[in-house]
Each structure stands twice: as structure tokens, then as C-alpha cells.
Amino acid sequence: TQLLEQSPQFLSIQEGENLTVYCNSSSVFSSLQWYRQEPGEGPVLLVTVVTGGEVKKLKRLTFQFGDARKDSSLHITAAQPGDTGLYLCAGAELVGSQGNLIFGKGTKLSVKP
Amino acid sequence: DAGVIQSPRHEVTEMGQEVTLRCKPISGHDYLFWYRQTMMRGLELLIYFNNNVPIDDSGMPEDRFSAKMPNASFSTLKIQPSEPRDSAVYFCASSLDLWAQQYFGPGTRLTVT
User: Fold this and answer.
1) Beta partners for residue B36, in sequence order
2) Could B42 and A105 be called an inter-chain contact, meaning their C-beta atoms sit closer than 8 Å?
3) CA–CA separation, B13 vs B9, rounded Å?
4) Residues of B in contact with A100 (CB under 8 A)
């Protein structure tokens, strides 16, 4: 089973700052998803990246899939308190004829007003 | 659609008791997943079903855990007997395809004393 390492584990910043969180693996994923989870709720999908080198933008959030499809990053510009939450990356893993999504442990982001 | 529905939202039980968690997936979704989330281990896949058939249960911790999906609109995760180390938030998720977006329920917070 492949492992996804997310960093940093915790991040506390002031409103208006920029930040980047990372998702790394030593193995290749066929695709990678980013989720955000707010306290007391389940994760909600933000984006899926499929192609190596792909960049997707969602308002102030920019997602990038590494060229080798082993890593990904999420950059937030001018963070707002509403961005607070747990950010999870999940890689699509194939094992023989089966497969599943492997989740990282997440980056817990706190944006203070 | 109401989304994925889980019950109960909170469960407090004593060690040794049987616990049953319930999930109603989104109608039309062929895949159903059960996850467990803790601070230490993050989000762990326990088991997933495709068209009501268990496909991969390698994440089920031990024989005390069992899951069933008697029909397309209902699944249960049972722990018998429960132990304090089973305390966690248990999520159910469903999706149209194995690699598609997973829609998570609100989770069941289980506390075993």
C-alpha cells in the first residue's frame, strides 16, 4: 500500500497570508483528490487532478499535480477564516485488479482574523 | 438528494457492548465505503462495497468488526465486542465509481468507555 505524507501537519496563520501545503508519495498515483473537512462534518471534495503537471484553480486555491504524479501541492492566496479546516489529499491506488483511495493524514489549517 | 445519511451521530457505550452503525448512501451510487478517523492514524479505509458486494475488507481491524450491505440503500458496520481503542469517528461515503468523487456522511462519533 502506498503512503501519502502531508506537510505541514498543522498551520496557523493570519488572515490575508498566503500558504502552501504538500502531499508527497514515493509511488505514482493515477489521480489525486483534495478534500476539505470542517469540524463535525465529513470531507468534501475540492478538486481532482489527473495529468502530470496539471494545475487547477478554484478561486483563491491553486492545485498542482507533480510531473511524475507522485506529489501535489495546494496553494491558498490571501487566506480567510472560512478556509479553516483539515485539508486531505487522496491518491487513487491500483492493486492488481482492485484499488482504492489512499488518504493522507491531512494538514490542519487555522486562519485567524 | 439528502446526501449520505449516517446514524447515530453520537454513540457512547461501555466496553464489551455491541455497537451498530448505519449508513444510507446516495441513491444510484454503486460504491459504498466505511472509514475510521482518529487523530493518530488519520482517515483509514475499513471496507468498501461495489453493488452491495464487499470488495476489499483488508482494512477491517479484526474479527470484532463486520460490515454488511443487504441492499443498495443500506449498510451497517458492527463492532462486537467494543473496546476503548475503537473510539473514533466512523464515516460512510458513497460514489458513482471507484475513482470518482466520494460523498461523505456526517460521521458517527463513537466513544467506548
Assistant:
1) B44, B90
2) yes
3) 13
4) 33, 45, 48, 56, 98
Name which of B27, B28, B29 is nearest B48 in CA terms.
Answer: B29
Q: What count of residues does chain A have? A: 113
Task: Give the pLDDT of residue A2.
Answer: 59
The owner of cell 461523505 is: B104
pLDDT digits (tens, 9 = 90+) for A86-113: 999 999 877 666 677 889 999 999 999 9
Q: Under the phi-then-psi rule, with left for phi > 0, alpha for psi from -120 to 50, and beta for the rest, what region is B81?
A: beta
Asked if the Cβ–Cβ distance from A30 to B99 is below 8 Å, we say: yes
User: Which residues does chain B have within 8 Å of residue A98's beta carbon, measured at their own beta carbons?
Assistant: 55-56
Mean pLDDT of B72-82: 97
Residue with cell string 462519533: B109
DSSP A26-43: SS--S-EEEEEE-TTS--
- Closest among A48, A28, A37 to B101, alpha carbons compared: A48
Fill in the DSSP letter of residue A81.
G
pLDDT at residue A100, rounded to an integer:
75
What would you measure as the largest C-alpha separation in chain B, in angstroms? 38
pLDDT for res B78: 98
Q: Do A98 and B42 touch (CB under 8 A)?
A: no
Locate B60 and state its grid cell: 477491517
Contact B57, B78 (CB under 8 A): no
CA nearest to B4, candidates B111, B87, B102: B102
